[in-house]
Amino acid sequence: MSILTRLVLLVLLASLPAIGILAHNSLTAIEAGERQAEAEARRLLTLIQDEQQRVVEGMRGVLVTVAEMAPRLAVDPQQCSTTLNRLRGRLPRVKGIALTDLDGSVRCASDAKLNGLMVAALPHIRMALYGQGFVVGDYAVRRMDGRPVLPFAAPYTDGTGRMAGVVSIALDAGWLREYLAEKPLPANAMLVLADRNGTVLGRFPGTDDQRVGKPLPEPLMALLRAPSDGVAEVAGLDGEPRILAYAPVDQKVRELFLAVGLDRAEALRTVTAAAERSAFLLALAAALSLAAAWIGARLFVLRPVARLKRVVERWSAGDRGARIGRPGDRSEIGALGLAFDAMAQELQVREQSRDAAHAAEHRMAAILAASTDAVVELDHEGRVTFANDKAARLFGDGGDLVGQVFAALLPPGVAEPFAARFRDALDRGEPEEFETRLGGDWYALRLFATGDRLAVYAQDVTRRKEDERAIRRAVERHRSLLETAADAILLVDAKGTVHTYNRGAERIFGHGPADAVGTDVRRLIPGGLVPEPLSPDRLADGVAREVEGRRRDGLAVPLELSLSAWSDGGDQFFTAILRDITERKRTESALRRAKDQAERANRAKSRFLAAASHDLRQPVQSLFFLTSALGEQTQGTPGHGTLKTMQQALEALKRLLDGLLDISKLDAGVVEPVTTTVAIQPLFERLAAEYAPEAARRGLTLRVVPTTLHARSDPMLLERVVRNLLDNALRYTGRGGVLLGVRRSRRRFHIAVCDSGAGIPPDRQEDIFEEFTQLGNPERDREKGLGLGLAIVRRLCALLGHSVALRSRPGSGSTFLVTVPAAEPPRPAVTTVPAVGRTEGGGCRLVLIIDDEVIILMGLRAMLEGWGYEVIAATAGDEAIRLLDEAGRRPDVILADYRLRHGKTGPEALRAIHAHCRASIPSIILTGDTAPERIVEAQRSGFAILHKPVSSHHLKQVVAEAGKR
Fold first, then answer.
1. CA end-to-end span of the chain, whole Å?
2. What 3-state DSSP class applies to 758?
3. How confident is the model over 55-79, as pLDDT tens digits?
4. Is 323 exposed, middle or buried (CB count within 10 Å of its CB: 0-12, 13-18, 19+)?
5. What is the pairing mode between strands 488-493 and 572-580?
6. Closest to 895 measured CA to CA, from 913, 919, 883, 917
7. What is the pLDDT of residue 833?
8. CA atoms within 13 A on the CB side of 768
9. Angle at which helices 680-697 and 715-731 pack, to 10 degrees?
10. What is the pLDDT of residues 696-736, one digit of tens each?
11. How far is CA 629 from the centre of its chain?
12. Mind listing the pLDDT tens digit for each residue in 250-274?
């Protein structure tokens, strides 16, 4: 750093306190001005907020008045429009008033042209319809005259107190301009008004409406979403920096955003001007001081120093006679010149005496600088005459070695071989070399005779010795791994020639190394290592594959091949690892046979259950029909109670057969879920109403936790899952109660069924999901079910893509969790009253029944006739057609068994009857066959299906519904 620069810096440092004081005063004044501007902005914001509140409350009052009149006005739309138009005329700021019904259709409006217009999509109408009460809407433009308005809405009720529609008012968005015309803002102020979505409703003062209807800039949008009111410095709508007081939508007027901003430059103009004047004066004073310092330094410092510098540069360039001479003044710089002349004279003398010595030193230094080894020079007696730094560190711990006997500096095991080689090198004049350890490292000592002296070079070869050892160890380790590996390992070149062949390969192929090495690999693997001729681009990247090997005796052996390629810099090689998989192949074959046998056993079980179910359903169905018919005949007799007991036993048997049917349906894959949005609370309410009496009968409490969640699932299948879990909990809970509720998660939730029963041991918690598995029911009490409920739960959950989990400890009850995906609730729809249908009692009178079981025909006929129907019974389709021709009538409903005699089926008989009658007659197929393939065939027939045994109540309802079609 130059002297002039230092002097300038000293002047600037002296000015720093004055600069600091000026900066502090300016900042303090600016802060005071900003606080004053913020207070003014807050005051203006409060005044305009109060006016906003008054206007909004006024609109609320008008809406409340019109809502009270709405039930009477809606009766006569013409009179209603006249009344609303008259009311609008009394409110200059209001541009329109309208009444809508629950559908969002305008019943009447101050402008009759709007009557009947559908406005349900408008945000303020929609929010009022969905129960949000008084609503301030979004910025909008009227279709009639294109004027911007701010809508307000509120619901109104009919005479019974139910919501009947919405009253809405459109307020001219320029109301605030009228207020500011009476109470104008300061000259440097600007007001911004926006709705809750950030749409600009107005900017005051100013007539530029280009910003009206457009969104706020992002800085102002951030203030609109702020948690509370405040003051910030941001750019206004005009882009100028402003001190802005704002009230977000959560404040006094919750639906509107208001901001009042003062021009920052205008508000701080006085303070800024004063600060600029002070800064100018300070800068002027500093400039004058710097100018004075610069002139003085040039005259009294820089000129003498420049003279001294010129002499130094001459002396450095080689002019040893350059001197300053006697200075013209006696200052410190003059004394420095005299001292320099004396030093230059002394250095000149010393330099001449050292030049000769430096010439010899330079030659030796060049030699040593070029060597990376330890270098020692010895005389004919073996004494050190020269040693470089590395030699001093290696042989003498950094000390001076000159004059010492070199052999004495070596370790005892090295001194003797060195002495022998030292004498040989001097006598014969030939170099000698040997390697030895020095200080734990390996060195190569090289001896060179130079006349009557000997030069010794010690080179560190420790790294080379370690590399050689590592190579030897790697070779031995590779050989050991290769020979001890159980798998065959081959090294093959790009031509397919075997180079390495281990003992594992000898065990697999039977060839010895001498017989295999050097031969083509296709002798061992006829198909080669890769499908095509060996090449790196066709090589599998470490993926094992199966190949066929050929033993020495000609037998084929299955092998698993893993192949990798590598290169030694020029030639390409492949390492092949081959594993004998003969035993694995035998195991896989045995597993396939066992799997096929298990699948055949499972199919046989399904066929047996289906056949047994069908053969049981036929007589059970007959018993249902006969007991139903008999029940009406034994009313009031002593045998009626016995008949009721028989019906309960039949119901238990029906539950068993229905469970088998559910399993068969799931096995057949005919259950297809229909996924939709399911409300959980109505499902809980139905199950609670259904199972509350059963819980009370068992002395248990059934508690349902309310929920508002919705799920994505099949409503019928999900209800079946929860029903089975609830039924299972009630059956196996002795005391306490059962809880049904929901546990929330992130994007899904768990339907939980908790009980206070005996609990389930951990080792049996998987077993209970198997068919016909029951714990704690060795006597097979039918009151505790049949052991199919949880099996059906697991299969239905797998079908729906839901998961079911169990948490239980013995003595602490059980909790079943069904995990379902959460869904957004559907948008509420307007409820309409359904059209009145046809009354019961008309229509169906003649029922045709077809079944090859005479006992079922008798029971079904007796039951139908007991219900007041006429019945024609037949055992086959052609017999039914003949009986219809004899009666000269056409049936209203047909009931047919699926399997008839002589290989005929119910759907075939129904299609023949439809063709004969030339009409599509409501038809129902009754089947007791639960085989999966039979269920699929029955569903493909296109007719309604009922599975035997069907209860009389259910059949009566189905026949009555069919007769109405």
1. 109
2. coil
3. 888 888 888 888 888 888 878 888 8
4. middle
5. antiparallel
6. 913
7. 33
8. 26
9. 20
10. 988 999 999 999 899 999 887 888 889 888 988 888 888 89
11. 62
12. 644 456 788 888 877 777 777 777 7
Give the integer Cα–Cα distance in Å for 812 and 919. Answer: 63
By the 10 Å C-beta count (0-12 exposed, 13-18 middle, 19+ buried), 604 is classed as: exposed
Q: Give the 3-state DSSP-derived string for 819-844, with helices as H, strands as E and coil as C.
A: EEEEECCCCCCCCCCCCCCCCCCCCC
CA distance 296 to 664: 113
Q: Name the residue with tokens 């109408």.
A: 125
- Cα–Cα distance for residue pair 237/65, rounded to 1 Å: 38
- The residue behind tokens 């002593």 is 638
DSSP code at position 137: -
Question: Distance between CA 417 and CA 424 in Å, rounded?
Answer: 11
Q: Which structure tokens are listed for 875?
A: 């055992």
DSSP category for residue 811: T
Q: Would you say 114 and 133 are in contact if contact means Cβ atoms under 8 Å apart?
A: no
**Residue 935: closest CA among 715, 719, 672:** 672
8 A C-beta contact, residue 524 and residue 511: yes
Cis omega (within 30 of 0) for bond into 205: yes
* Angle subtended at Cα 549 by Cα 543 and Cα 554, rounded to the nearest 5 degrees: 175
73 Rama sector, left if φ>0, alpha if ψ -120 to 50, beta otherwise: alpha
Partner residues linked to 818 by β-bridges: 751, 804
Signed CA dihedral, 410, 415, 419, 422: sign only: negative
Largest CA distance in the chain: 159
Give percent of the chain with pLDDT exceeding 90: 9
Q: Does 655 have pLDDT greater than 60?
A: no
pLDDT higher for 835 or 204? 204
Please determine, for residue 665, whether its predicted confidence score (pLDDT) is greater than 80: no
Per-residue pLDDT band at 331 (split at 50, 70, 90) = low
Q: DSSP state, 217?
A: P
Count of residues making up the chain: 965
| Sequence-distant (≥ 6) Cβ neighbours of residue 857 within 8 angstroms | 849, 851, 873, 875
Report the C-alpha gap between 928 and 621 in whole angstroms: 9
Tell me the pLDDT of the chain averaged across its residues: 79
- Residue 578 vs residue 716, higher pLDDT: 578
What integer pLDDT is reported at residue 529 of this predicted model?
76
Peptide bond into 949 cis (omega under 30): yes
Strand partners, 383: 405
